[in-house]
Design a protein that fits this description.
- The protein is 32% helix and 9% strand.
- The protein is an alpha+beta fold.
- The chain has a five-stranded mixed sheet with strand order 3-1-2-4-5.
- The chain is globular and about 85 Å long.
Length: 275
């Protein structure tokens, strides 16, 4: 009798062990809905963090370019020409030694055109410091950072339109590049290089070609594709620039046109609002 009771209890225990609790279909749907909602809330935050990192990396690139221009000026007592007459070699090719790219610099024949066959092995290299992490450009030798040749005067005053900045194209072999003393608006009020996402391979968007330098049109800063003659990026809310003093700033898209115009000139004596 005792053995029979034990056997019955064992059978009951085994039978009970096979009985498992399970989620119902409704419970699973509720869980999936909650997880989906949490992911929906988390995704924008992750994207925002990624863009913050890309923007910071872009600013570091421009900081390096500012240091490169400063190092060049210390050596030659002048800034490079934005674009050299006849060959269209760029300021960004001239500062390669200051960017620890001396080997690439020695591969150039600066007597020949920037895209001469002898220069193609050098110029069609993709250099990380010339590319914004938010950019979608994929062709070899691309750049997202262009020299500022000046500004079309948004105030309507007469001036040296198109050549009132610091990195402009030379119109003759006798033309002199800009010296620091020529920047009478102040180094901290004059843009040297800015983001220009709208400059692509069809309009000289190569770091080795100085024809990418442009005169900023009457307008503000764009935070989308932008036009050819426009400081523009894919960063939400504005674009990055480096000033002649080497400082990097994020210019908001809400800045006035007159402020942008004033920052693009070297000796316009304009009043510049906070930026």
């Amino acid at each position: 009798m005792i053995d029979s009771i034990k056997q019955n209890r064992c059978h009951a225990g085994v039978k009970g062990a096979k009985t498992r609790a399970a989620f119902t279909l409704i419970e699973l749907l509720v869980v999936f809905s909650i997880v989906g909602a949490l992911l929906g809330l988390l995704l924008p935050a992750v994207q925002s963090l990624r863009e913050t990192a890309r923007r910071s990396s872009c600013q570091n690139n421009l900081r390096q370019l500012g240091l490169g221009l400063s190092g060049y000026e210390s050596m030659f007592r002048t800034l490079p020409l934005g674009s050299e007459f006849g060959t269209a070699h760029s300021w960004s090719s001239r500062i390669l030694p200051q960017l620890e790219q001396s080997n690439l610099h020695t591969g150039f024949d600066f007597r020949a055109a920037w895209n001469d066959e002898s220069n193609r092995p050098a110029v069609f290299n993709s250099i990380p410091v010339y590319s914004c992490p938010s950019s979608s450009k994929s062709y070899l030798g691309s750049t997202d950072y262009c020299g500022i040749a000046g500004s079309y005067d948004a105030s309507g005053q007469a001036g040296d339109v198109g050549r009132n900045g610091v990195l402009y194209p030379a119109e003759s072999t006798a033309e002199k590049p800009v010296r620091l003393k020529d920047i009478r608006d102040g180094l901290s009020n004059t843009i040297a290089v800015g983001e220009a996402i709208g400059v692509t391979e069809i309009n000289f968007g190569y770091w080795g070609c100085g024809l990418h330098c442009f005169t900023h049109e009457d307008g503000g800063v764009s935070d989308d594709e932008g036009g050819y003659n426009e400081i523009a990026s894919l960063h939400p809310g504005g674009a990055n620039v480096v000033l002649c003093d080497g400082s990097v700033h994020f210019l908001r898209a809400s800045l006035s046109e007159n402020t942008i115009s004033a920052l693009c000139t070297r000796a316009g004596a304009e009043l510049v609002e906070a930026f």
